[in-house]
Amino acid sequence: MSKHSKEIQAAVLSFINKYKDSQTEHYDSEFNQLAMQVFAYQFQNNTSYKKFAQLRNKNMLTVKNWWDLPLMPIQAYKELTLATENTSQAADVFYSSGTTNINHRSRHYISKLNIWEESMRAGFKKYVLPNMDKIRILSLFPGMTDNPNSSLSRYISTAIREFGTEDSHIFFEDNQFDYSGLIQALKEAQQNQEPILLLGASFSYVHLLAYLQQHHQSFELAKDSIIFDTGGFKGKSKEITMDKLYTDLGRAFKIPRAQIINMYGMTEISSQCYDRNLLDHAENKIIHFDKVTPSWVKTQVLDTETLQPVVQGQRGLLAYYDLANWDSCVAILTEDIVIGSHDGFKIIGRAKGAVAKGCSITADELLQLE
C-alpha cells in the first residue's frame, strides 16, 4: 500500500477512536477536514469515482464541505469496480445477496479489515451493549464459515468474537436452522436467568416465530436480554410489518419493546447505524427508536428528484457519508426513503419507479466511467 493510503487509514482510525464515545466542540470541523482528505485520496486513486465526480463538476476546487461531496448511486457498485487499491489483493470482498438477480450483485472491495472492524466494534459497543462488555449471543444467521463474502456474516462472526461469551453460538449451518439446539440454549438461559442477545435477520425471526407457534413454545428472557434485528426482508418468502414482527417477538420472549433493536447496514457501506433505544435506556433518557449514526458517519435527507436537502420531517432519499469507506466511495446515495428528525431518522421504505430518479445512474454515464 502507498504511503498516502496508510496515512488515510491512520487518520480515519484516529478519528473513530477519538469520537467513538462523545464529541467535542471541534468535531464538526475535524469531520469536514477528514472527509475532504478522504475524497482527495479517492479522487486520485478511484478512477470511476473521479470520472463520476468530474461529470458533476465536483473536484478538489469546487468541493469544500462534506455535504457537497459527489454522491455515488448505490447501484453503481453492481456495475463498476469502485476501489482505490488493487482488488486482487483485497482482504475481503462483500457481495450483496442478489435477491433481484444473483448474477448482478454489488461488490465492495475491502482493502484491509482494520477500519471496518474498528467501526463495527465501536458502533456495536455504544449502541447495542452500552452497559455491558460481554453477553451470550445466539445467532440465527450464518457466520463467515458458512456464508463467506457476506458483510452481515462477517459482522455476526465479529460480534461473537468480540462481545460474545464462550457459550455463544450460531444456530444456522448447512443452509438450515438448528431449531433444537437453539431451543435448548434458550431453555438453559431462561432457567439460569442469563441475559442473552438473540441476533438474526428479519426473515430469521419470521421463521423462528412460526416454529415456536407450531410447537406451542414461548420463553421469558432474563432482564437485560436483547433481541437484535439486522433487517433484510427484501426478496424473502414472507413479509410482515416491523411493528407486527416486534410485537410478536415481545410476546414470544416476554421482552419489552425497549429491548428490541434494529440495525441499518448494507454491502456498500463500512459502518452501521442503529436504533437509539438501548443507548437512551442506558443513559436514563426518554426512549426513542430513531436511527442514529456513529460519529464517523453523517447523513442527509434529499429530495428524490432535485437531490437538494428537504425540510426536517419531510420524506427523502438517504445520503450516507461514511469515513470508514476510505477505500471505495466516501459519499453514497442509497435507495432508501427516510424521514429525518432531531433524534435521528426513520426508514420508510425503498425508492421505486419514478421516485428513484435521483438515485439512478444512466447507461451513458456508466460507459463514461468504465
Report a brief summary of the structure.
This protein is an alpha/beta fold. Helices cover 35% and strands 19% of the residues.
Overview of this protein structure:
The chain has 370 residues and is of the alpha/beta class. It is built from 11 helices and 16 strands. A hairpin with a 2-residue loop joins strand 15 and strand 16. Helix 1 packs parallel to helix 5. The chain is globular, with a radius of gyration of 21 Å. The model has no long low-confidence stretch (mean pLDDT 92).
Keywords:
16 strands, globular, 5-stranded mixed β-sheet, alpha/beta, 370 residues, 7-stranded mixed β-sheet
Topology:
Layout: H1 3-19, H2 27-45, H3 47-55, E1 72-73, H4 76-79, E2 92-95, E3 107-110, H5 114-127, E4 136-139, H6 151-163, E5 169-170, E6 172-173, E7 176-177, H7 179-192, E8 196-200, H8 202-214, E9 226-229, H9 242-253, E10 260-264, E11 273-275, H10 277-282, E12 291-292, E13 297-302, E14 315-322, E15 331-341, E16 344-350, H11 363-369
Parallel strand pairs: 1-15, 4-5, 4-8, 8-9, 9-10
Antiparallel strand pairs: 2-3, 6-7, 10-11, 11-12, 13-14, 14-15, 15-16
